[in-house]
């Protein structure tokens, strides 16, 4: 790009970033959430969410680096300005919208129950008297807290979702409730765990969004434009196929 504008007045996609936008944006992600974000053998952060943000950044002329950020501190890191953007399979909720701004939704999800293959759990309500593992502060935690009561001693809260699933495998839990994509991925890659999944239509449908600090309208607009661009040019569909196979 030579800085020429097209008929709509927007700069061509390949134009060099302006000085202001050239700062490398710190993107926070809790990279223990395959296939959305995880660390490979080399310690690189990889996954569907990562590829989506890279593609969005390329469209929007943004430079990004990914910073592994524990889930429990991730929203604070954004609010305090330590991260510019969050991508972490974050469900857009009314409560979260009060403290941060979300992009347009980029992924549909729902809670899914993991139990041992021989368990007699057939629906979410069956978990009422059981020992259930969740990742602290997730929508899975919210769902089980609603079912059992927030202070139920049968709710076991973990720092990461894989830790909860490992504890289920070890026999320390009766079930885990987490996002469907992550549960399905774990079951597919850990046949030895002998899990089965139980779905329930009573779970609220969820949508993931990228999060920016409340009021960062400039970055949000760029992110939303980038998302719209990758959806319309087939990039998003190719990434979806790469990770979810359909
Ligand atoms: N979608 C769920 C939520 O927003 C769980 C997200 C957890 N993400 C992660 N990378 N650990 O509460």
Describe the structure.
The protein is an alpha/beta fold and 246 residues long. It has two domains: 20-108 and 207-244, D-Maltodextrin-Binding Protein, domain 2 (3-Layer(aba) Sandwich), CATH 3.40.190.10; 111-198, 3-Layer(aba) Sandwich (D-Maltodextrin-Binding Protein, domain 2), CATH 3.40.190. 33% of the residues lie in helices and 23% in strands. It has eight helices and 15 strands. The chain has helices at 48-60, 71-79, 94-97, 139-148, 161-170, 180-189, 217-232, 235-244, and strands at residues 24-29, 32-33, 37-39, 45-46, 63-68, 85-86, 100-102, 107-109, 111-116, 132-135, 155-158, 175-179, 195-198, 206-208, 211-213. The strands form four sheets. A five-stranded mixed beta sheet has the order 5-1-6-15-7. The chain has a five-stranded mixed beta sheet with strand order 11-10-12-9-13, with helices on both faces. A three-stranded antiparallel beta sheet has the order 2-3-4, covered by helices on one side. A hairpin with a 3-residue loop joins strand 2 and strand 3 (37-39). Helix 1 runs antiparallel to helix 8 (235-244). It is globular and about 55 Å long. The chain starts with 23 loop residues before the first strand and ends with a helix.
């Amino acid at each position: 790009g030579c800085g020429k504008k097209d008929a709509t007045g927007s700069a061509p996609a390949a134009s060099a970033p302006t000085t202001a936008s050239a700062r490398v944006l710190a993107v926070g992600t809790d990279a223990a959430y395959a296939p959305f974000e995880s660390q490979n053998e080399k310690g690189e952060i990889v996954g569907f969410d990562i590829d989506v943000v890279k593609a969005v950044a390329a469209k929007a002329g943004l430079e990004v680096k990914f910073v592994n950020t524990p889930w429990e501190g991730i929203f604070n890191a954004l609010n305090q300005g330590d991260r510019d953007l969050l991508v972490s399979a974050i469900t857009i909720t009314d409560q979260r919208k009060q403290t941060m701004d979300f992009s347009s939704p980029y992924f549909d999800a729902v809670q899914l129950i993991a139990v041992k293959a021989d368990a007699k759990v057939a629906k979410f309500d069956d978990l009422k008297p059981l020992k259930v593992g969740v990742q602290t502060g997730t929508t899975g935690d919210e769902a089980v807290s609603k079912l059992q009561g927030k202070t139920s001693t049968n709710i076991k809260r973990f720092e990461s979702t894989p830790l909860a699933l490992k504890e289920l495998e070890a026999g320390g839990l009766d079930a885990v409730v987490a996002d469907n994509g992550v549960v399905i991925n774990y079951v597919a890659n850990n046949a030895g765990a002998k899990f089965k999944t139980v779905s329930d239509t009573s779970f609220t449908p969820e949508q993931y969004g990228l999060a920016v600090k409340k009021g960062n309208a400039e970055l949000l607009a760029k992110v939303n434009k980038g998302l719209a661009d990758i959806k319309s040019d087939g990039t998003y569909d190719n990434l979806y196929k790469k990770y979810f196979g359909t």
